[in-house]
Amino acid sequence: MTTTQAHFLRRDPAEIQPWTETCGQIRFLIDEKDAAAGEVCEVEITDAKLHYHQRTDEFYYVVDGNGRMLLDDEEIELHKGVVVYVPRGVKHKAWGNLKALIVCVPRGVLNDVHELE
Questions:
Q1: Does any domain span residue 9?
Q2: How much is the pTM?
Q3: I need a surface site. Which of 12, 77, 102, 114 has the fewest CB within 10 A?
Q4: What distances in angstroms separate CA 27 from CA 20, 40, 89, 91, 99, one per listed residue?
Q5: What is the count of structural domains for the chain?
Q6: Distance between CA atoms of residues 84 and 80, nearest Å
Q7: CATH number of the domain that 80 lies in?
């Protein structure tokens, strides 16, 4: 009988320095080097750049704030509690005053950002 040791990760956003990325001020809570199935980041969005991902799907959960999101040619409203699934290949950007948790599957999203503006 073989056993494997389970690993877990715990991250506190207050301990991670944010930086500016395509979507805004970003903090990766779970990133590629952690070798998890996906990545999790906290993002403060005011005016993201239009972009898409060839290999990555994203799930946005709006933690706080209000704004809008463009998904290809469709514009939607965002507010606290809304979840948006953005499949790979969909051109997207958000704007407003938003704080979102984004889950990226599979991992490696920073190497899969294709800016269009």
A1: no
A2: 0.91
A3: 12
A4: 9, 9, 23, 22, 11
A5: 1
A6: 12
A7: 2.60.120.10
Q: How many CB atoms lie within 10 A of CB 92?
A: 21
Domain that holds residue 67: 19-111
Compute, in degrees rounded to 10, the torsion defined by CA atoms 95, 20, 26, 77: 0
Decide if 101 contacts 82 (C-beta within 8 A). Answer: no
SS3 string of the chain?
A: CCCCCCCCCCCCHHHCCCEEECCEEEEEEECHHHCCCCEEEEEEEEECCCEECCCCEEEEEEEEEEEEEEECCEEEEEECCCEEEECCCCCEEEEEEEEEEEEEECCCHHHCCEECC
* pLDDT tens by residue, the chain, 117 residues: 555 556 788 999 999 999 999 999 999 999 999 989 999 999 999 999 999 999 999 999 999 999 999 999 999 999 999 999 999 999 999 999 999 999 999 999 999 999 998
Asked, for residue 1, whether it belongs to a domain, the answer is: no
